Amino acid sequence: MKIAVCVKQVPDSETRINLPGPVPDLDRSAFTLVINPYDQFAVEEAVRIKEKRGAGEITAVTVGPQAKVREMLKKDCLAVGCDKAVIVDDAALAGADPYAVAQVLASVLKRDRFDLVLFGIKAIDDDASQVGVMVAELLGFPHVSYVGNLVIDGDRLTARREIEGGVEVVESGTPCVLTCGKGLNEPRLPSLPNIMKAGMKPVEVLDCAGLGLTPPASLTRVKQYSPPPPRGGCTLIPADDPAAAARELARRLHEEAKLI
Fold first, then answer.
1. Residues 244, 204: one domain?
2. Concatenated DSSP letters for 133-150?
3. Exposure winner among 59, 123, 136, 206, fewest CB in 10 A?
4. Phi and psi angles of residue 79, each rounded to the nearest 5 degrees, phi first
5. How many domains does the chain have?
């Protein structure tokens, strides 16, 4: 089985953003960049599928400047079981929106004809949760989103996903696109020997021209980043009489805050 795992490099969730006021773009120079945490579940699931079947090939695919993403691919993909990687590095894709990225990824995936394509459910930088399902539509593949459990038997798969009030069970053939959620597995950590060996695995770097693709234009753009509004002050209600305090709290929540 040929498996592709599409991954993204994002700012670490603990990165502090200096945003004193509204700005057209963020200063990313001091950001600590890591693999998107949800993509780690996709990588781990791909490796487990290969290990269980005893054969197969896993390709990690990403879009971004190779100078920045290469180390991420080495440590978080190749060192934990992926066999090779593809980087699409094209200056024309800087700031590309989800649909533009999906078109580029779909071109790579069409070229190499994969049986299974895995994504994380979303990237933690924009929370768009769009690229995986867009790629599925562009490829004409069936897709299952927010997968929390996966069983593959031959060329058939059974995916379970949590929905409001229960669990939905979806069966599909391959090729198929899945977006993987937290709880699907426990991602492994790379060992130092495997990180060293990962440097010997093939990494293909190409641009849009190499894919025979005109760089797709973004249909959306972020106009402004703004800090959240300051939090309001706290009002204390005297509690000498707890029952009266409770009534006053309920009144304010209903008449002033409009919360109840």
1. no
2. HHHHHHHT--EEEEE-EE
3. 206
4. -75, -15
5. 2
Structure tokens at 135: 């790629």
Name the residue range of residue 179's domain.
Answer: 2-211
| Distance linking the first and last C-alpha atoms of the chain | 55
Say if CB 177 and CB 142 are below 8 A apart: yes
Strand order in the sheet with 149-153: 149-153, 156-163, 166-173
Report how far apart, in Å, the C-alpha atoms of 67 and of each of 63, 94, 106, 121, 174 are.
12, 14, 23, 26, 34
CB atoms within 10 A of CB 172: 17
CB distance 151 to 158 below 8 Å: yes
Closest CA to 103 of 7, 218, 220, 2: 218
77, 196 contact by CB (below 8 A): no
Backbone φ, ψ for residue 151 (5° rounding)? -130, 130
Distance (Å, whole) CA 167 – CA 116? 22
User: Both tokens of residue 222?
Assistant: 């972020």
Beta strands in 64-105 (DSSP E): 84-88
Pull the structure tokens for residue 94: 């800087």
Task: Point out which residues pair with 116 in neighbouring strands.
Answer: 3, 176
Q: What is the pLDDT of residues 2-18, one digit of tens each?
A: 999 999 999 998 888 88
| pTM metric for this prediction | 0.84
CATH code for position 92 = 3.40.50.620
